[in-house]
Amino acid sequence: MSDIRDCPAPDPHPGGPTRYAVPPGAVDTHAHVIGLPPAYPFVAERSYTPSEAPAERYLAMLDATGMAHGVLVQVSVHGTDNRRMVETLRANRQRLRGIAVIPLGLPERDLADLKEAGVTGLRLNVLFGGGVGLDQLERYGALAREMGWHLQFLLDARHLPEMAGLMARLPVPLVFDHMGHMPASAGVDHPGFQTLLGLVRDGNYVKLSGAFRVSDTGPPYADTIPMARALNDAAPERCLWGSDWPHVAAWDGPPKLPALLDLMAEWVPDEHRRRMLFVDNPTRLYGF
User: Fold this and answer.
1) 117 φ, ψ to 5°?
2) Does residue 11 carry a catalytic annotation?
3) Over the stretch 255-276, which tens digit does the pLDDT of each residue have?
4) How far apart, in whole angstroms, are the C-alpha atoms of residue 30 and residue 74?
5) For 35-46, what is each residue's pLDDT tens digit?
6) Using CA atoms, how far apart are residues 263 and 90, in angstroms rounded to an integer?
7) Which among 110, 216, 244, 262 is annotated as catalytic?
């Protein structure tokens, strides 16, 4: 437990002017709500201890950044206890959707309850090859197909070549977090990034997000521009935007959301493509 670090709190003032107008109907496809123990326990096997990120602050962030809708992703510190996220979904049925983290073998009634609450996909953490074995991926794929869900992956794209064949055979759409969560310094010619480009071209989705996680140079994250543009050129109809609020494990302090939104003017310079990114693509994928 001594290696578990406390996260900085999220920015209390998430709004502000941006270089362009966020289009009406915009969707933030990646954020978390976080409760506190004892009501919402943290898993022991975690790398950080976050501050509380309650629903009211999350909804205020959506309002401050011009987001009509949001997609909550089950945060790792709550493990497979999706209660805090599901409570928020149920209280905001028209505005929100969710991505759950569940064990295999969950009873059918529990699966039906998640779907009824607004869950549209499952997140799998295979970062650095850990967490979920490749044999389990096929079982999660079958479950997602049965439920009408997609699979969302947190992974390091540098390891994609060794698992790309299996991923290509999964029977549902795939969503890759944070542009493949690999250092920008690895470059767009890295075999892992090229594999990610291929998977996106072949019908899967990618989140243009997490600049502060993959940048080696820091704000204004200029070293991330080639990655984002390459992905958007590969499939502008399957790129998504996510704030990643409340920016857990941002050890230098949370990024400013207006700055992350401004970055979209560099990542996706074309206004029509930005509308696809913010509105059309997530509306279709998440069923708003």
Assistant:
1) -75, -20
2) no
3) 999 999 999 999 999 999 999 9
4) 10
5) 999 999 999 888
6) 32
7) 244
* Of 207, 219, 223, 212, nearest in space to 157 by CA: 207
User: Bridge partners of 100?
Assistant: 122
Does any domain span residue 114? Answer: yes
- 61-83 residue pLDDT tens: 999 999 999 999 999 999 999 99
Distance CA 55, CA 88 (A): 6
Alpha-carbon distance of 132 to 227, in angstroms, equals 26
Q: Measure the CA–CA gap between 248 and 124, rounded to whole angstroms.
A: 18
What does residue 76 show for φ and ψ, rounded to 5 degrees?
-65, -30
Q: Note whether residue 5 is domain-resident.
A: no
Residue 26 lies in a domain: no
pLDDT computed for residue 2 by the predictor = 54
| pLDDT tens digit sequence for 102-123 | 999 999 999 999 999 999 999 9
What is the token pair recorded at 279?
Answer: 């509105």
3-state SS class at 246 = coil
Question: Is residue 169 in some structural domain?
Answer: yes
Handedness of CA 43, 46, 52, 53 (dihedral sign): negative
Residue 259, helix vs strand vs coil? helix
Residues of the chain by 3-state class (helix, strand, coil), percent to 5? 45, 15, 40
Tally the domains of the chain.
1
Report pLDDT for 47.
Answer: 84
Extract the tokens encoding 74: 């089950």
CATH of the domain at 274: 3.20.20.140
**Residue numbers of the domain that contains 67:** 33-286
